[in-house]
Each structure stands twice: as structure tokens, then as C-alpha cells.
Sequence to fold (467 residues):
Amino acid sequence: MFKKFLVFCFVVLAAFSLTRFAVSQVPGAETTTGTQVPGEQTITGTQAAEKPVANVTRAAKDDLYSQIELFSYALTTIQSEYTEEPKPKDLIYGSLKGMLASLDPHSQFLDPEDFKELKTETQGKFGGLGIEISIRDGLLTVITPIEDTPAWKAGIKAGDKIVKIGDEITKDITMNDAVKKLRGKPGTQVKITILREDDLKIHNFTITREIIHVQDVKDTQILQDKIGYVRLTEFREESYTEFRKALDLLKSQGADSLILDLRNNPGGLLNVAIKITEEFLPAGKMIVSTKGRRESQNSEAKSANSSPDFVKWPMVVLINEGSASGSEILAGALQDNKRAVIVGMKSFGKGSVQSVIPLPDGSGLRLTTSKYFTPSGKSIHGIGIIPDIEIKREFRKLDPEAQQLEDIEKAFDEVESKDVKSASDPEAAEKIKKEQDISKKLLDDNQVQCALQVIKGIRVYRSMAGN
Fold:
């Protein structure tokens, strides 16, 4: 009994000392870091937590003490009765993992190795499959495959449920364990089994891992009638700089309107998403707010934009079920401020903030501490952004005869436009060909076509209104 009492005292003291340590280690303002890990998408941060037990009622404290006594009893029973003597560290780590996993899919306990790994996940290249995952409704779910990665090339789609990794069922798997199983040395293979809701069929994929190189800003071009197009694949440290270069390029080429493509953008750094959003909103406009249990977890981000360059451009934002987190913040801010028309399909719905809290032994907690809200006060989490114009993505299909005529026309156009350049500069010719292929694919995309028509409609409305 005395031994149980000592363990109980140790557990109580440890619980409160860990809380105080964690609080003392975090800075006074929230910062965020995105993850580039294949198979994971979270926005993580460190956040101050003043007076960690101030909001706990007397009744809650009493209940906590009684439950800790139950925990200490179970702990000492396991130590004395289990068939082999377990290590105390293993028992405590196991308890913490279970405790965090019981809260929500994004909260987790990180042992020292996992915690160290978390701090190196924003390098922009990594070994893996190239998929972003989350746990939704208890199932390991693909948020989006990253373009031009092994998963993308294999045919993995947003919304796919990963039911097996190798020979192991993923039921009740944690995010951390899933990431570890999906990662591996470049050149090695992993077999995954997918349940696809579109056809309710099981699909098996064997995918070779690669180093994943991510290009944030892609396919910058003027599609037609001075309407620019930019695709933003995620929000990393360099994304804003690259995005601003793309906008300046379009402006120099005569663009006066924009289609911003956020389809299959899983998010990333919150501060970068806010900075990009500011380009399109005048100063003082609300972008996003966070709300948690503590006052220190509540925040508002407003535009500090002092440049009028792109604030008045007619604008459409494309989203789909693979658009999450930072993408939803950007799309929601522009939608609620009536700054852009949102076209596509409902987004993923990942709108919670995870704070990363270090613990004394080098381990850490990733804990959900607040949720995101759009300027109008709508929660993103579990709901997503509903497009103003909901339209499922399809590509234009021509009958065989029309396709043949189009191919012939395209061939002659390419010969005329690149004949001289290809003789002197094969690289330039190849670049032009690639741009033309991308442009054709975009113009065959019905969601892009819808966006073009919306922008033209905005122009007509503004001209009639005298703006």
C-alpha cells in the first residue's frame, strides 16, 4: 500500500511539474510550422499558456485526483503482476500515447525521436510516397497526393481510405505510426491497399519511394483575355516570395484578373497563408481568427496590405476535396470578404490548431488547442469551405474526328511558332511546348472554363456599374 501511495504522489507531482515545464518553455506568441512529410498534414505551433490550472474548477481538480489514484493503482498492479517486469518509462510513454490519441486524430505524444523528427519536417524534400494524410471518421484518409510524386503517378486520389499498409490493417492506427510505415529509403517499395468511395472497390498499389521535391508555384500564365492563372501547391517558407514573383510576372504581361488554383493544396505554414491572402485584401480586413479555451489561444489576423496592386483584380479561387487547412483559410477569407468567387467542390475541412509543447526528457506533445474561424465566424473544421459555384471537375472530350482535326491544327501551330527557336535553342522549344500543353489541359478543364466565364461576368457587371 505504501508503494502505491509513493507512486500516486510521484504521478501527481510529475503531472504538475510537466505542465509547468511545458508552459515555461513556449514563447509568448503563437508561431506555426508546416509539415512536408508524406502521409501527414498538420499546422503545428508553440503557444503560450498562462496560469495553466487557473481555469480548472475545484470539482474538476477533485475528479482529477481520484482518476490519478485509479491510474496509479493500475500502474503499480501492472508493475507487480505483469508476466515480465516492464520498464517504468515504457509504461508512462504508453499511457501518454493513449491519453493524447483519445482526444482527437491530430493530438499525439511524441517520444524524443519523433519530436526531433517533427522539427525537421519543413525542409521541402523528403523520402516517401508524396501523399498528405489525416484520420477522418477513424479511417486513415488521403487529403491529397502531391503532384508529380510516386503516389500521384500511381493514381492515388484525394479521399482514398488507406485500409492496409503492407500486410497490416490500419484500423486504429495513429498518425505517427502511419507516417513511419509509409516512409522509407528512396528506391524501396511499399504496398498499400485503398478503399475508394467513388466505386466502393478495393485497389492495391505498390509504390516506389522517392525523394519528394516540392514546387510551390506552378503553371503561371495568361490563359486568355488578360486573365492570369497561378497554381499554388502548398504554403512553405519560400511560397510567398515565389507567389509574388508569379503575380508580378502576370502583371508585366498585361494581366488584370486572376484564377488562383488551390486544388489539392493541403496547407502548410499559417503565416504564409495569411501573407498571401493579404495581397488581395485592403488593410484592416479580417483574414482568420482562432478560438480556444484560454484567452491566450484566441487571436485575430487582419490584413496589413498597403499595396493596391492586386486588391481590385477580378478573382476566382478553385478548390476541391484536397484543399485543406491554409488553403481553406485563404479561400474562406476571400469568400467572406466578398473579394473572390469560390469555384469547385467542398474542401477537406481541417481547421484545428496544434500547439507543440516540449517535455523535459526531449519528448513532446502535439496538442489541439484551438480552431480556425473565417471572418464571418464560420468554423472550418469538419465542415470545409462550400464553393459559391459547386461543379465537379471534368475534362472536355472530343469525338474522334474533331480530336484528329484539333491535333492536326495544333501540329501546324507548333511548327510555325517554334521552327526557328527549335533549330537554335532546343531547350526553349521544349519549354514552349510544355507551356502549350499545360495551357491546353487547363482550357479543357471545366472548372477552369467556369472560372473564366465568372471573371468575364464580373468585368461586365463592373463596366455596367461604372466601376
Q: What stands out?
A: Residues 1-54 have pLDDT under 50 and may be disordered. The CA atoms of residues 219 and 435 lie 8 Å apart. The two ends are 82 Å apart (CA to CA).
